[in-house]
Specification:
By secondary structure, the protein is mainly α. The protein has helices at 17-38, 41-75, 83-112, 134-141, 148-151, 155-172, 177-198, 203-210. It has a single domain (17-113, 137-208), classed as Orthogonal Bundle (Proton glutamate symport protein), CATH 1.10.3860.10. Helix 2 (41-75) runs antiparallel to helix 7 (177-198).
């Protein structure tokens, strides 16, 4: 004879990701206050290691993710009927969002006046030996080898190499299919690994906001 029960065991509800980030920030502020007020050097060191490790993991994923994402996106244009129109709309949205980001940055800079409490004056600065030109900018996009852009995290050079590789793959057609299949698999692998890193994000703002900032001049 079977015994039925109305008791239901419910799994604990996981907080939304934004709430975890917010909780991490609040926890970081509390830990930072505790570390400064109690002079807990071990806590400061631990928080710096946690935050630095998270940033290092993100930097590790950026270069290959950008390269393979652009490569796969360009090669997938052959599946789009009106690729030129899609590309023009993409560039338009890129310019619009860039202008919005610049406007937000300018407004925040004018309102908060960053660097006002540092005690620095224009006389403390030094003029650069030379200023770059548009020609220098364009020539700087072209890498001299395929390794340095990844080791130095030069995103513009990585984008250039990915664009060249993607266009070349489009020209090759079916001959490039094996490398395209491999690139799509690598991109999926990187996205999965990056999601694991992002799941650690609540601990990153906690560690970053808790790390005491160095004293500025005049304080």
């Amino acid at each position: 004879m079977s015994v039925s029960t109305n008791t239901q065991f419910k799994l604990p509800v996981r907080a939304p990701f934004w709430a975890q980030i917010l909780a991490g920030l609040v926890l970081g502020v509390l830990l930072g206050w505790l570390a400064r007020s109690q002079d807990l050097s071990w806590l400061v060191t631990t928080l710096e290691k946690v935050g630095g490790t998270f940033i290092g993991l993100l930097k590790l994923a950026v270069a290959p993710l950008v390269f393979f994402a652009i490569l796969v996106s360009i090669t997938n244009l052959r599946k789009v009927n009106n690729a030129a129109r899609l590309a023009s709309r993409t560039l338009l949205w890129f310019m619009i969002t860039s202008l919005i980001a610049v406007a937000i940055g300018l407004v925040i800079g004018l309102v908060t006046n960053p660097g006002a409490g540092t005690g620095l004056t224009p006389a403390d600065g030094a003029k650069p030996e030379r200023t770059g030109s548009w020609i220098d900018f364009l020539t700087g996009i072209v890498p001299t080898d395929v390794i340095t852009p990844f080791t130095e995290l030069n995103v513009l050079q990585i984008v250039f190499m990915a664009a060249v590789a993607g266009i070349a793959a489009l020209q090759l057609g079916e001959k490039a299919q094996p490398i395209l299949t491999l690139s799509e698999s690598v991109l999926e692998l990187l996205q999965k690994a990056l999601w694991w890193v992002i799941r650690l994000a609540p601990s990153a703002p906690s560690a970053s906001s808790a790390t005491p900032s160095p004293p500025t001049a005049g304080t």
